[in-house]
């Protein structure tokens, strides 16, 4: 397999053939436009500027100045990143890509960069969709991207406490491969699972497999090691503590601005043996939301609880329904869960929901395939179609970008009492912005996670674009919906992180005294101000 | 009812009569010694020094210089606090007690104190057992204790999202009284429930009702308002967010060093309708621990899961058993939970546990009394005896202190793989220290909370003391067990907080770079260094 330098995942997995034909057929129906294919440029044609810095001899072996390497580390994987790559627009490229082998290397690299004032961008899988790894750092003589991919091992497993000490650079599948012989799993499956790392999940407070309870990676952390320019911060392995403000919670979500996460003790699970799943159709969206809220407040704690609105159900699950489809899943390694599903379906029926014919939810002992991302086998055709679509989405997004179709997502969270207002404001803002820049477009919504006090809505936007204008078109839409989220009381991000792109709205959302505290903490830990400048805080 | 100035709770609820007789009879059996009763001194006899400061006219109405007020705010409610009160040893007394009526008053008081360099001690119920409210602040011209008791209202209830905006100074019972008409409850019941406040719980990361999942108050917080000398930090109401490091998590556990928490939006629950409880006896403690671990890792998530060791069972539940007693409880507002109890009992039986005869765990719909602290009605005689004892413990501790008996608790948390070592080290350290200072003594252990990756053990110490030496005796024991906890990898506190008394071990446990970050954050928020000096961080 070959990683794509310009787009998602592996070159060999790109959308093509019949899948591409079907995709474009659907696009033609929804939003006719110019569907010319624009092939990605070769790396050699990009004309990257020469690196502005050379690593000292002691670090030279860790550093690459290869154009392909530098190009592949210039952008994240947002729509606007992929489009800029396709157009050969790489304005900010790291001068070097450094690949430390261990914590000593991380420390030495940070020492060198701090001394020279060189910006350092910690890099995991590079799947940021918020400009989190893009070296827009104009105030520094050079930029080094620190790619942790060589630090990819599970170092210790404690089967008694069900925890493991894991290096930050490990990618999802390789992590699970190393845990599988122990009968354990981290069970953290963000959509980016295959191409993102533990360190990236921790630095960005990634959202994972569980729709309820353990929604963010935060809750799976027992302790962390973080190399800062001011020393190594190593917290103690604890199942819980009340000793002052949590050290880990300062580094969770710090997005590479306070230090480089090198390893963590993570809480693991037994692989699930019992499962029950179903999908439920609703004729009315408001009622579907009320049913989902009832389940979120029931204490049943489903592993999966995704409400797809009618547009999402149609486009990504091929289901035509008036209100929406609720995808439900329960799982356990210890006990049958079909009664939990039955109770959830009862709550749905109370709200007029219609469970799928095959959604009986009989327990299945030892069903295979339980460790896989999006692994919601069974549960009716709606579920299966949606899941397969879920895993192909990033690849399809790239194919659409090549054909000048705007296709991107954004997400938030809000309290239940504010959801209707936020949903309307965001949907209207998206439609209005799409009308302005593209004449038309479709906006979809699903819940990725739900809490007793509110949902995490995830929106999709699809609009016909114009080659050459795609980034400007998208930026206009993104600004409009971000404004709507911020003024409706939502968070600018539930699990995509802040990066550089969310800064204007994050700055308004964040309490000013906390900004001052965070800034002071950064100065204490990174006195030279070299760590990921411009992310979370203004560049120095 | 009259609050005791020197001891726990209300004067009228103090141990006396038959309860006192029975208590002393038990003490005589276990540890013979001089049981003379030492009555508390009158406040007038304490000879408090005159206040060193006068409030400006604009704030004078908020401030009290009454000796009884100042004496009642001089200490927390630890054993060493009560003993010092009984001995009339009040070395550090606040000069004034200020009672702000609203956020404006809090700001004005902070402004005045910052200007004059006067230390400010935020004060909720004053139930600290770690010196968290004791004005040992020698580097300041005066000390003002800010008692939030006037800010005690539930300001808004959002029934849809099940959340409420609540002022920080409200005590547990008054908080629940205000939520009851809405059919909702915070369901946070620390042992101090009756005499502690929401703001205190938040500032100290209090541990509450739930033995699993939502163990600390942290998880029940939707947003917070904190008045700092640098402005008001108001986070947004969100069910979840990934926008940078969590602002609330910086203030949770800040113990009054970063600002004064004035209100919070808290997540609420429906009052439980379904309950199932049991107690299980084990012949061997190691096996009892293994059974408890199996339940903690099962995903059954009991609301109550307290393993009492043999000494705890004997002393506080009147049960004679070789290994221990596991007290289990499940509850739900939505669905029956007897099957969860059945599965937990099955796990216990697999480990040789014997459920109590009446522990059938039939569901009871609408059983009354569900909102009460320690409200585990039914569940067998072991459970009932232990619960009644639980609520009387602080009063009994005071009675014992008056009779020169050392009686105190301390707590920690650790991973399961390290528990046996920690338990042995702590128990041996306690016994050795008791031998050294008291000749003999008893140490007990129970789990207050359990996690998939480890328990939170809570220890009790009972030893014969000598009037006049009690504080020194206890301090010797406390230092020994704290040393054992720290070197065994535990946390110096799971939910009692750090305060001033845990500082030496907290300082070793806390990662140095995090200490630097926290210190920088404090300087940014409290530039004059007046907020609770000496707590968490060295006094300036």
Automatic annotation (TrEMBL), chains A, B:
Residues 349-385 are annotated as: Disordered. Transmembrane segments: none annotated. Keywords: FAD, Flavoprotein. SUPFAM superfamilies: FAD-binding/transporter-associated domain-like, FAD-linked oxidases, C-terminal domain. Residues 368-381 have a biased composition (Gly residues). InterPro entries: Alkyl-DHAP_Synthase, FAD-bd_oxidored_4_C, FAD-bd_PCMH, FAD-bd_PCMH-like_sf, FAD-bd_PCMH_sub2, FAD-linked_Oxase-like_C, Oxid_FAD_bind_N. It comes from the Bacteria. Residues 90-271 form the FAD-binding PCMH-type domain. Belongs to the FAD-binding oxidoreductase/transferase type 4 family. This is FAD-binding oxidoreductase. The lineage of its organism: Bacteria, Bacillati, Actinomycetota, Actinomycetes, Kitasatosporales.
